Structure to design on (826 residues):
């Protein structure tokens, strides 16, 4: 019977045993600290991002509502104000529903104007989420109006930044896009909008009914400017039932408004649990990394088990004496497991300190667009995970050696040098090394596939030259009554933009400056239906859409986008001239296959949109990677800024070899010289935009590569230990071989052959596992198959070389065996 006194005696004995072998203890604890610490750090991120419920009331009942054009393959188009009202009043799915619309705004009346992110919301937004303010109030029934009510709730960050956290902030005024808003409440420090924003965290929330100025009035059913709605399901309604009811409501909407929902578009409403909507894209990568670091811990456990088996050679006589004095097998197993648990606890304690540092490293490496990163912390769940991993590893690496070490023949063990179980331990150690190599191969293959994919992605043809290019965004103010804004009309906007571009071109080191509404890979997109002249009466099977970009004269040249035919924009293409457009090669192939589109005309919008002007195609340029690096270019049209403009614009400058990043402040100053109230934000080089587009892949590759390298190192240590053990056990046999005339080279080949056989067995076992597990990587690969034979062959060769390298020293030592000494030792 195990008593507390018995456990303390076993613990004291285990501690004395570890103190007698400090080198073994240090290596084992360090190995465990690295394995458990890495697992804890990754789990802390997974816990915060994926596992922990959202910090709102009844988060499992919160969903986001949007819609898809299934026939056009255009997902997540959002919804319109009339649809928001229909979902609320006619669907029977939601107990509460709030529309959301993120916008940029200018916060002025301060020394340096500031760009802030504003979320326009239905007045019941905070009620849907169950949020309470830390100061003041949130929105109520009095804030319900068709247009934008001029009251705001601000974030804790803006409260501290703008008002130094003063309670006097309640009732103060803020000038936002030339309108004065009253601060009525401050949100708690941990609150963040649970959804998509434009660039940064939301700073201000304002209530609106989305049905009066500055929105279209009366509301238009096909105006999908809302990014969606946050809703709370009715009590007792499951996600599956809610989706069925929403699909039925969508069918009812289509039948009542057939002109707004043509069958060829395939409009269909969709809801997704709010937590899944937030983390769905990053969840597979994080779980993949958690599995990968788990493999590293398994390899570490196999290594420690091998160390314990090696240490058993020196404890064989001790265990035989204990058995002779009456110790039972369970008693010996418990004693040995106590030592393993002590090792694991020491490793777990060291891992806790290491994990705190690794968490900070991970947060620095994780792409900035990963949600909920600010919630990463070591909470009770992380502590429980660490404790469970610590206990589990002690059993994992300790049980098999304990059972193996207690299978001793007492009489053989009492004889000096008796080794009755050496052969069995050798087989177990070899099996552990095979498992190590198999696990290492899985990780290395995964890292190799990601590396090849990332290399291909970095060398894909993007269609423009990103070198020495700096970008910056401006967002002109739009008051709640747009007609009162100084940039309401096109001439005023163009005058400002041209003034800004003149100032940018005058900066030292600037070779050219231009502007566009959409930059490649910046995450913003504008899509429009297209009607081709002469085909207005066609009834196509699907609506034809293109991406639309508005660019200044010189933009295509500055970006080095190749001209294929015709011309680009010129100075005469102003608002008084005929409307022109430059199209891409994919647009030409889509609408005029085998024809010359130069001189042909298109109109943006459906055939019935007859008030939209015709646009004459004057040139064709090469396609560019506009959406994502791993997505083929979609058809695109460029309109000229001198004829069409809006409130949002990106300034682009190309330097004469000067570091573009060094011009950020100067470019912002040039914008303020044109308008002192105009902030500049999002200042990044084009190469940073490209890097951000591949950030999630780079993160996965970096961590999986690090885990794979660690696994390779541990596997090399494991096979080195086994081969050293084998050479020690076969000293007599090797001595006989040398005495009978075996040459040193033959002895080396004998040892290397055995090491390579172990590695080959691990490769075969690992390859079969990798073929199954790498399927989970398919969504992260680009132009590389998960079964790519070249990657498998390269990794197999790497493991073979590692096995040979790690075994070389034991093999060389075997070749130097003196037969006289070897035979005398027996």
């Amino acid at each position: 019977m195990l008593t507390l006194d018995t456990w303390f005696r076993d613990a004291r004995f285990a501690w004395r045993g570890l103190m007698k072998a400090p080198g073994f203890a240090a290596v084992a604890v360090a190995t465990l600290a690295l394995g458990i610490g890495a697992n804890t750090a990754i789990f802390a991120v997974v816990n915060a991002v994926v596992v922990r419920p959202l910090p709102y009331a009844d988060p499992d009942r919160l969903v986001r509502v949007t819609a898809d054009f299934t026939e056009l393959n255009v997902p997540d188009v959002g919804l319109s104000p009339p649809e928001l009202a229909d979902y609320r009043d006619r669907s029977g799915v939601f107990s509460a529903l709030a529309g959301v619309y993120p916008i940029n705004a200018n916060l002025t009346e301060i020394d340096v104007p500031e760009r802030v992110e504003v979320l326009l919301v239905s007045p019941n937004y905070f009620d849907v989420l169950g949020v309470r303010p830390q100061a003041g109030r949130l929105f109520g029934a009095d804030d319900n109006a068709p247009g934008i009510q001029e009251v705001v709730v601000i974030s804790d960050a803006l409260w501290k930044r703008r008002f130094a956290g003063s309670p006097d902030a309640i009732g103060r005024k803020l000038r936002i896009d030339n309108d004065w808003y009253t601060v009525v409440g401050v949100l708690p420090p941990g609150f963040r909008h649970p959804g998509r924003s434009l660039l940064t965290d939301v700073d201000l929330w304002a209530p609106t009914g989305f049905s009066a100025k500055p929105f279209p009035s009366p509301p238009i059913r096909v105006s999908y400017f809302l990014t969606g709605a946050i809703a709370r399901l009715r009590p007792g309604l499951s996600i599956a039932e809610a989706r069925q009811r929403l699909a039925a409501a969508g069918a009812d909407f289509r039948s009542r408004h057939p002109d707004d929902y043509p069958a060829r578009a395939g409009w269909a409403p969709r809801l997704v649990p709010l937590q899944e909507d937030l983390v769905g894209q990053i969840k597979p990568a994080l779980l993949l990394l958690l599995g990968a670091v788990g493999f590293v811990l398994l390899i570490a456990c196999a290594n420690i088990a091998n160390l314990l088996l090696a240490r058993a050679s020196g404890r064989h006589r001790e265990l035989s004496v204990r058995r002779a004095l009456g110790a039972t097998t369970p008693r010996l197993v418990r004693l040995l497991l106590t030592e393993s648990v002590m090792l694991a606890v020491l490793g777990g304690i060291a891992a806790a300190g290491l994990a705190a540092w690794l968490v900070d490293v991970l947060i620095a490496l994780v792409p900035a667009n990963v949600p909920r990163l600010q919630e990463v912390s070591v909470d009770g769940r992380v502590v429980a995970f660490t404790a469970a991993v610590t206990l589990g590893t002690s059993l994992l690496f300790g049980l098999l050696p304990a059972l193996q070490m207690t299978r001793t023949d007492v009489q053989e063990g009492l004889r000096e040098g008796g080794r009755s179980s050496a052969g069995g331990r050798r087989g177990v150690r070899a099996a552990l090394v095979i498992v190590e190599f198999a696990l290492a191969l899985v990780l290395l293959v995964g890292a190799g596939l990601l590396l090849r994919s990332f290399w291909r992605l970095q060398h894909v043809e993007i269609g423009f030259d990103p070198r020495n290019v700096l970008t910056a965004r401006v967002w002109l103010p739009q008051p709640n009554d747009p007609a009162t804004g100084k940039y309401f009309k096109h001439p005023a906007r163009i005058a400002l933009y041209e003034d800004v571009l003149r100032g940018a071109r005058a900066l030292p080191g600037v070779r050219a400056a231009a502007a566009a509404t959409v930059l490649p890979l910046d995450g913003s997109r504008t899509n429009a239906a297209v009607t081709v002249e002469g085909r207005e009466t066609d009834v196509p099977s699907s609506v034809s859409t293109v991406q639309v970009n508005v660019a200044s004269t010189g933009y295509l040249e500055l970006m080095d986008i190749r001209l294929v035919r015709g011309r680009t924009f010129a100075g005469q293409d102003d608002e008084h001239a005929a409307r022109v457009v430059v199209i891409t090669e994919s647009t030409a192939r889509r609408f005029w296959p085998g024809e010359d589109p130069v001189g042909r005309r298109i109109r943006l919008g459906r055939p019935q949109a007859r008030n939209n002007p015709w646009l004459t195609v004057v040139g064709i340029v090469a396609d560019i990677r506009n959406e994502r690096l791993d997505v083929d270019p979609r058809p695109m049209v460029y309109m000229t800024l001198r004829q069409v403009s809006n409130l949002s614009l990106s300034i682009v400058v190309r330097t004469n070899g000067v570091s573009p990043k060094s011009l950020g402040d100067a470019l912002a100053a040039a914008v303020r010289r044109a308008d002192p109230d105009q902030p500049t934000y999002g200042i990044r080089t084009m190469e940073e935009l490209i890097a951000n587009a591949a950030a999630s892949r780079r993160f996965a590759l970096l961590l999986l590569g690090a885990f794979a390298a660690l696994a390779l190192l541990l596997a090399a240590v494991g096979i080195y230990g086994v081969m050293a053990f084998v050479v020690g056990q076969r000293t007599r046999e090797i001595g006989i071989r040398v005495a009978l005339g075996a040459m040193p080279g033959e002895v080396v080949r004998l040892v290397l052959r055995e090491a390579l056989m172990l590695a080959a067995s691990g490769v075969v076992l690992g390859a079969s596992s990798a073929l199954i597990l790498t399927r989970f990587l398919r969504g992260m690969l680009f132009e590389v198959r998960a079964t790519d034979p070249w990657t498998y062959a390269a990794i197999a060769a790497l493991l073979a070389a590692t096995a040979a390298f790690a075994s070389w020293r034991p093999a060389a030592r075997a070749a130097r065996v003196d037969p006289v000494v070897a035979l005398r030792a027996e």
